[in-house]
Every structure is written in C-alpha cells, then in structure tokens.
Amino acid sequence: MTNPRCVELDVKLELNDVLQATYWHLFNKRRFGWLIGFSVFLLLVTIGVAFLVPDAGFGLLFPLVLPLATLLIVVAPYFGAKRTMKSNKMAQQVIRYRFSPEGIDAIAPSSAGHVNWDLLLEAIETKHSFLLFISPQLMYTIPKRCFPGGELQMDEFRQLVREQLSEKAKF
Hints:
Low-confidence stretches: none
Helix content: 40-55%
Radius of gyration: 21 Å
Order of helices and strands: EHHHEEEEEEHE
Number of domains: 2
Distance between the termini: 29 Å
Strand order of the largest sheet: 1-2-3-4
Strand content: 15-25%
Shape: elongated
Number of strands: 8
CATH topology of the largest domain: PH-domain like
Mean pLDDT: 88
C-alpha cells in the first residue's frame, strides 16, 4: 500500500541532468555573473587594443588570463561530469527515492541511506529538476522526467517538501 503522503521515484541520472544541475548551481551565483561580464569586457578591450596597436605583442596576453580562466571554469564541469558518469558505477545506477514526512530514503543496488528533512539547507525547483541541497556543494538532483505521475505527482512532491522545509523550499 502506498502512503498518500509519500512520493516514490526511480531516478537514473543522465549526463544532461548532471550538467543542468551543475551549471544552474554555478551560474546562479551573482559573483560568477560579474566574473563573466568582466571577462567579456577584458576580451573586447584586448581585441580592440590589438586592432588599434598592432605592435602591442605579448603585452596583450596578460588581459586574456581572466577570460581564459573563466572559460576553463565553464568548460571544466562538463568534462568532470562526463568522466564521473563514465567511471563511477554508482552514478550509473537507478536510485529509488522515497520522500516521506520522516525524511528522504535513497536505495541503490550498491548502497542505501536516509536523510532527515532538518539536514537539508534548501530545495530549489529549476526548469528541468528539483535540487535538494544537503550542503552548499552537495545536492540530490531529481529530474522532472523521473516523475511517472507527471504534474500531479510533482505537485504532491512540492507540497511535501514545502511542509517539511517551509521557507527553505524555493518552488
């Protein structure tokens, strides 16, 4: 018998799920938006100086350090996620999640665990997923495509999470 106050899901993360969650987390920070803006500005200034002062030489390399570092910050998560999804057997398994008033149970073929609601920092809904943060850098990613009951089941999930996290649920 299924408890109406429980939501049970089978989740098998795909590379796209991990990338969407990672990039959302990375780009949602205001300081990173500022860094990208400043990097684009430096890149444009460097290109402008290169055209106006053709003899600038190696002096133009210094202003390119920040834009190149920013590019690395943007590209590195892709390769890290791809490597993790390929090499980590746990990342390739189907995880059975059970969300109830008692907490979150996660059961995979190789491991199982329980997290009480009071340990979660926040829950956020994005266009494609629900992100449940256990720490500032660690989150459960629950893709919306994994809700077999569609929008009705997602509404039940939202209600349960709001009841348990109140203002920490940002849906």
